[in-house]
Write a structure and sequence with these properties.
Layout: E1 3-7, H1 11-26, E2 31-35, H2 39-42, H3 59-66, E3 72-76, E4 88-93, E5 101-105, E6 114-116, H4 120-129, E7 134-136, H5 142-150, E8 156-160, H6 161-167, E9 173-176, E10 190-195, H7 198-204, H8 210-226, E11 234-239, E12 242-248, E13 255-261, H9 265-290
Parallel strand pairs: 1-2, 1-3, 6-7, 6-8
Antiparallel strand pairs: 3-10, 4-10, 5-8, 5-9, 11-12, 12-13
């Protein structure tokens, strides 16, 4: 019996789902793709924080799993909210791709004055690096963003390097080092979310990459304590047990940061609590300036 796999309809989402289907095919498991539209795909004219954050890419697929319309769904793990509905499980974490951001540009990097991104994290990190640059909102899929830059609306745009690699896109620019431009938690990671069906979970578990699952679990433990989602500029990156986590002010002028080795998920939670205490004023200020009520 084939597995019905839900996916968004963007080219990147389809490429990621194709990767999962091919891996399952090598195990002799048949699959069927089901495309499901999400609010994040249909509402592209405003920043993510104005329509509910990264979770807008996930809710429709969650609902489809719980309704029995599909068996599982493929996601970029960074899009998955901290708190999940009952009845769902992360059945597989694939081997992680590049976690880094990529600054794509046309022409000379010295001529960059306007950069496109709607991420509060990327905005703050760019302003910290160069307070003189101008940041303009930019939504849409990867192809749309590149097209807008080519049309001259932006001198440069910020993208996830992993997304470019999965789409086979080569474009002038530079990889931004994760220790300086700390990525979004779980960036570069493809996951498969399924209903809690033991037989289904067992088949999907063959795709799991244990070291990647451990690293993203550390990041997620810190994120759970910080809260903030995509509303607060924050980066969290763990690689082979070394954690870098930071919270920034919206304008990039202030930062609270942790840079240390982590031995357990419980230690990650404690570090998340510590960073939250140190950065509480930055988190509160971000919500206030964005006009969003923050409860924790």
């Amino acid at each position: 019996m084939s597995i019905k796999i839900g996916t968004r309809g963007s080219r990147l989402a389809l490429a990621q789902t194709s990767t999962v289907c091919k891996k399952l095919a090598t195990l002799g498991i048949d699959t069927e793709q089901v495309i499901i539209s999400t609010q994040g795909d249909t509402t592209t004219g405003v920043p993510l924080h104005e329509i509910g954050g990264q979770g807008v890419f996930v809710r429709a697929l969650d609902d489809a799993i719980l309704a029995g319309q599909i068996d599982c769904a493929v996601h970029s793990m960074k899009d998955i909210p901290t708190f999940r509905p009952n009845g769902l499980i992360t059945a597989a974490v694939l081997k992680r791709d590049s976690t880094a951001d990529y600054l794509a540009y046309n022409g000379s990097p010295d001529a960059i004055m306007v950069i496109g991104t709607s991420s509060t994290r990327r905005r703050a990190q760019l302003l910290r690096h160069d307070p003189e640059i101008s940041i303009k909102d930019l939504r849409g899929n990867v192809d749309t963003r590149i097209r807008k830059m080519a049309a001259g609306e932006y001198d440069a745009i910020m993208l996830a390097e992993a997304g470019l690699t999965r789409l086979g896109i080569r474009i002038p620019g530079e990889r931004l080092q994760p220790d300086k431009f700390v990525p979004a938690p779980n960036q570069g990671t493809i996951v498969v979310v399924s209903r809690t069906d033991p037989s289904l979970m067992e088949r999907l578990s063959h795709l799991d990459h244990s070291p990647s699952r451990t690293d993203v679990a550390v990041e997620r433990a810190v994120m759970e304590q910080l809260g903030g989602g995509c509303f607060t500029p924050l980066g969290i990156y763990c690689h082979q047990g070394h954690l870098i986590a930071e919270v920034l002010s919206l304008d990039g002028t202030r930062t609270e940061r942790i840079d240390t080795d982590v031995k357990s998920i419980e230690q990650a939670r404690e570090l998340g609590k510590l960073l939250h205490e140190r950065a509480k004023d930055l988190i509160d200020d971000a919500y206030k300036k964005l006009g969003i009520r923050y409860e924790r």
